[in-house]
Structure formats: structure tokens, C-alpha cells
Amino acid sequence: MREDVVLYISPSDSEFVKKDIVFLNNHFKVIHYSQDWGNKKKVINLFLKQLVFLTKTVRKSDCIFIMFGGYWSFIPSLFGKIFNKPVYIILGGTDCVSFPSINYGSLRKKLLKQFIHWSYKMATRLLPVDESLVFSENTYYENRVFNNQGFKYFFPNLKTPYTVIYNGFNPKFFNDNLDKKIPNSFISVALTDDFRRFQLKGIDKIFFLANEFQECTFTVIGLKDQFKNKLKSIPKNIKVLSFLSQEDLLIYLNKSEFYLQLSISEGFPNALCEAMLCGCIPIGSKVGAIPNIIDKTGFLMGSSNNNYIKKEFKSILALNNAKRKELAHSARKRVENEFHIEKRQNKFLDLIK
After folding, report:
1. Cα–Cα distance for residue pair 348/353, rounded to 1 Å
2. Strand partners of residue 185
3. Domains in the chain with CATH codes
4. Cα gap 280→181, rounded to integer Å
5. The whole model's pTM is what?
6. Residue 1 banded pLDDT, cuts 50, 70, 90
7. Rounded to an integer, what distance in angstroms lies between the CA atom of residue 227 and that of residue 259?
8. 256-261 and 238-241: which strand pairing?
9. Residues 121 and 130: beta-carbon distance below 8 Å
């Protein structure tokens, strides 16, 4: 009996891509093709290479998974249509939003938006990681151009069906130990290499809070050294680190009492869930999947206004120890019960079988 072949296309080899590949390899033969589409000058060359690759592989594939909508999703979606292969596009965040004021979101670019629209129309099914990527209202960011976001808002006539499949996490690896927690310690994880992402991921708000609350300690993980050197000043109560292994990240998460996710836009932030599994009390902006993830286990910021955030932060610091432990336990349980890795895996299996 022939083994089913899954073709998996991605623009990177990120951790969530690797998790999908590892799982799919346990059940199918996976052909993974990854290209870095970050350099605009190489787009034509990447299209040609992708065309050659797909010409050789698409006929022997049973289905095609594509991580995110983008230039890279167009030809695989087209080939799936031509050769009658099911095409599933995993929607992650930037492929469903537009924030021109901070130069973020694939749908703010006219040509890229068109390629994404074509891809979505040809796909068999879209797989957003959260319902907010279908349609949502963003009232958190003060300097917004669009109140509404999501692919249904930007492509209102799109008929392609969709199924929400959350990202999944392993509670056995991301364990909690509340005895290790340092009081009033805050952590955030965000790959940041320029001022755009510094603002997008809310790291500017963390710097503001650090200056306002000197009695607290903050850890920011993911700031690249080259960008860190461009910052005029870093508050003394902030520890800034670049890339960490999953094992080293676990150490910092287990020591931190709170996790900050004050992003302007998010799809489904993995680090937030990993931190909650480690017993970090979550504090997040009311955007994307963040309200769904946190629910009643932490705190949601309804505005990016500094005075508002400062006021809310004061009330959080006033929490007694009993309430903090209660929230820490409920945060772990929330991710363990709702966003377990097995739930994502089972939904993938249901699609393919």
C-alpha cells in the first residue's frame, strides 16, 4: 500500500513549521520545501525555482500544505488546482491584516495582496490559527488606519471554506514551578531586528513600563544585537537577550511571574502560550488571538495609550499572592486544555484522511 505524500511549502523553518513537519512525518511521507522570500530582488528567481520543484513533485503528492499566504502560495495553489490536489493554506497573521501606519501586514501591499487573494481563491480550504484572522475589530492601536482586520474584511466575496486550527503546545516540555518565581518580574519574547517590530511587538511599551516602575524587573528576549546597539538607552531594570534555545528560554519563563504581550497585531502568539504553561500570568493587548488565549486567566489591555496602560499596570501590581498563584495555575490549565498539541494534530489528520 502506497504511503500518502504531503507536500509542505513554507517561507521559513520556524519552530511552528518544524513542529508540523515532525508530527506529519509520523503519519505520512513529507516533502518539505522552504525558501526565504524576504529579498524582493529575488522574487522572480524564487518563482522559477519553485516552479521547477513543483513540476517534479506535485504529481506524486496527495495534498499540499502552505504556511501563510504570500507570493510563495500562488504557484502551489495553482498547481493544486490544475492537478486536482487538495491545497490547505495555514493563515498565521500578517497574511490577514494591514497596518500601513507601521508598515506591517501583507495586505497593505497592492501586488502582494493580489497574489494572496488569488491563492486563497484557488485553495481547497483555509486554515486560520484563530477566528480573529477571519474578521475582527482592532481598537487597541490608537494610530490605526483600518478598524477592521481579517481576510473576510479585505476579501468580502471570497467563497473558499475555512477551518480554524489553533497552534498546539506540549505541556510536558513547558512545565511550571511556581516556587521559582521572582516577585514582580515580567518577561516578553519577540524576534526584533528593527524599530518597526520594536513597536509592533509592544517592546516600546515595556521600555515605558520599566521606566515608570523601577521596583519591577523586566526581561526582553529576541532583540538582535545589531538592533540593540541602535537604541539610545535601555532602562537599568530591563535585561535584554537575543536568541535563546528552547531549553534556556524555559529557564527564564520559569523564573518570571508575568508575561507581557502588548502587540499591535498578532495571529496566535506561541511564546504567550508557552509562558502560560510555565505559570506566567499573562498580560496582553486586546488584538488577534490574545483575548481568546488569555480569557479570564490574566489581563487584557484595551488601549495602547500609555496613561491607560500605566493605570492598569498599577492595579495588577496590587494583586495579593493568593490571587497571583490562582491566575498562574489557571493560565497553565487554559493552554493545557484548549491548545494542546494533540488537538492540532488530530485536526490535521481529519483533513488529510
Report:
1. 9
2. 217
3. 5-165 (3.40.50), 178-338 (3.40.50.2000)
4. 9
5. 0.91
6. very low
7. 22
8. unpaired
9. no
**Residue 67 neighbours by CB distance under 10 Å:** 23
Each residue's pLDDT tens digit, 167-214:
999 999 888 877 889 999 999 999 888 889 999 999 999 999 999 999
Q: For 205-214, what is each residue's pLDDT tens digit?
A: 999 999 999 9
Q: Where are the alpha helices (DSSP H) in the chain?
A: 15-25, 43-57, 71-82, 110-122, 151-154, 195-200, 203-212, 225-228, 246-255, 270-277, 290-294, 306-317, 321-338, 341-352
State the cell numbers at 1: 500500500
Burial letters 320-351, b for 16+ CB under 10 A, else e: eeeebeebbebbbebbbeebbbebbbeebeeb
Express each pLDDT in 279-332 by its tens digit.
Answer: 999 999 999 999 999 999 999 999 999 999 999 999 999 999 999 999 999 999
- Cell, residue 120: 486563497
- Kindly give the pairing relationship between strand 29-34 and strand 87-91: unpaired
- Locate 121 and state its grid cell: 481563491
Identity of residue 4? D
* CB contact burial 178-201 (16+ within 10 A = b; e otherwise): eeebeeebbbbbbebeeeebbbbb
**Which position has the grid cell 501563510?**
68
Q: What is the torsional sign of CA 125, 131, 136, 141?
A: negative
C-alpha cell at 198: 520594536
Q: Which pLDDT score is estimated for 332?
A: 96
Q: Quote the DSSP letter at residue 340.
A: B
Q: 94 is written with which cell numbers?
A: 500578517
Residues with Cβ within 8 Å of 338's Cβ and at least 6 positions away in sequence, in order, are 166
